[in-house]
Design goal:
By secondary structure, this protein is α+β, with helices and mostly antiparallel strands. The protein is built from six helices and 14 strands. The protein has helices spanning 46-63, 99-105, 134-139, 145-167, 216-219, 225-235, and strands spanning 6-9, 13-17, 23-28, 31-34, 39-42, 70-73, 78-82, 85-86, 89-96, 112-122, 131-132, 171-185, 188-194, 202-206. The relative contact order is 0.16. Bound molecules: uridine-5'-diphosphate (UDP). Uridine-5'-diphosphate (UDP) is lined by residues 90, 92, 99-100, 129, 175-177, 201-203, 215.
């Protein structure tokens, strides 16, 4: 029986009131959505994998001094997080051209970019999350120049960490999205990484074969999404704890 107060329900997660003031519980659902929610399926076990992968990444970000909202994973589907004031931006970092930048600028998918590029999208479902510049962000007061400096510095640090982490397990980090929030501690505020980092929010390609190990498998019907996410977890060495029910049938144990 779940009597906790529900604070918010999004496409992939539900947020509940946490055990102490200033905390929340994030519950990872199995819903997979794409194209502004036009494509929607339940992928049995996806929430468990994303909870575990995001736990692994955020725990390591915290360890190397990159501040996040993450406190600890509570169980297969839930994690304890700090309540933050979410800045309404999707911050995308790209290393290799794919997805919308390839379409918008006519750059062939897979082209290494001359340097990592940061983009901002205004989080607004009704508008389809339009791309915006720093000018829009500061003019409309979604964030200020000081915060934007912090956000960009954090985004670059996360990119460096994730690129190395995934490279070490034979995966190329093509791009990813983060969200940031304001964490208030007494009278001081700092910007922290919020939301999740998982194959839902990254493009991850096998370094040798370019096989896609991320949400593009779902977006473009490229195969079994759960298998792709399991492969990421397996390579990171965190699969055993995440094996729940799987629709992919039994796995041969050698
Ligand atoms: N992304 C995301 N949520 C969004 C939009 C994008 O997590 O609402 C991620 C996406 O998975 C990819 C990166 O941000 O890793 C860049 O996405 P892009 O702008 O290419 O958009 P897409 O082609 O995925 O719509």
């Amino acid at each position: 029986m779940n009597r906790r107060r529900r604070i918010y329900e999004g496409k992939a997660k539900i947020l509940y009131e946490g055990p102490e003031p200033g905390t929340l519980i994030a519950h990872f659902k199995d819903d997979a959505t794409a194209f502004d929610g036009k494509k929607h399926e339940i992928i049995d076990g996806k929430g468990v994998l994303n909870n575990r992968i995001s736990d692994y990444i955020f725990t390591n970000l915290n360890k190397i001094g990159i501040p996040t909202h993450f406190i600890k994973r509570l169980n297969m589907r839930e994690q304890l997080i700090r309540e933050v004031e979410v800045i309404p931006l999707e911050v995308v970092v790209r290393n290799v051209a794919a997805g919308s930048i390839s379409k918008r600028l006519g750059i062939e998918e897979g082209t290494q970019l001359p340097r990592s590029i940061i983009e901002f999208y205004y989080k607004n479902d009704a508008l389809g999350d339009p791309m915006v510049s720093e000018e829009h962000v500061t003019a409309f007061g979604w964030s200020n120049p000081q915060e934007m400096d912090d956000i960009m510095a954090l985004a670059i640090r996360v990119n460096d960490f994730l690129s190395g982490l995934f490279l070490s397990v034979g995966i190329r980090l093509v791009d990813f999205k983060i969200e940031c929030g304001r964490l208030w501690e007494n009278d001081t505020m700092r910007i922290v990484i919020a939301d999740e980092i998982s194959p839902d929010s990254c493009r991850l390609w096998d370094i040798e074969t370019d096989e896609k190990l991320d949400k593009d498998v779902f977006r473009h019907d490229l195969g079994n999404m759960l298998n792709a996410y399991q492969e990421v977890a397996r390579r990171l060495g965190i699969l055993n704890e995440t094996q729940e029910r799987s629709t992919s049938g039994p796995t041969l144990v050698k």
